[in-house]
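R.M. (postdoc): so does anyone remember the format we settled on? I'll just put the structure tokens first.
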């Protein structure tokens, strides 16, 4: 079983930045693709960004391209989400998720989430 623990959320003004972290337990983190999702009040959870096990490839939702950057440090079992130029519409609970090989059946593990609130 893998546990994911997010941190780094908080209250920030529009135009500001935050860096989210997600630490994973276990020895197999380096084999997982990792992703960030967000869920705003009254809305469904939606995809934000994904990174492959090696960090060699990333993918982003159109709404965050050019503003957010996903990265990982396999030596620290950690995935990051650097969030710049934040907008009020980025306000949501942000979750990290892990996808085991062969990466076919959706995400296998989820964290509890960290709240991000962007004030206008």
């Amino acid at each position: 079983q893998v546990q994911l623990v997010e941190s780094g959320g908080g209250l920030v003004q529009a135009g500001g930045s935050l860096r989210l972290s997600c630490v994973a337990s276990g020895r197999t983190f380096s084999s997982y693709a990792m992703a960030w999702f967000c869920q705003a009040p009254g809305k469904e959870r939606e995809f934000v960004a994904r990174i492959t096990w090696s960090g060699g490839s990333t993918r982003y939702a159109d709404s965050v391209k050019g503003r957010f950057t996903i990265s990982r440090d396999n030596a620290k079992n950690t995935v990051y989400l650097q969030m710049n130029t934040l907008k009020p519409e980025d306000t949501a609970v942000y979750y990290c998720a892990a996808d085991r090989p062969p990466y076919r059946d959706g995400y296998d593990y989820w964290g509890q989430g960290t709240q991000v609130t962007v004030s206008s």
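R.M.: ...and that's the designed sequence above, right after the tokens. Also worth knowing: The mean pLDDT is 96. The chain is about 0% helix and 50% strand.
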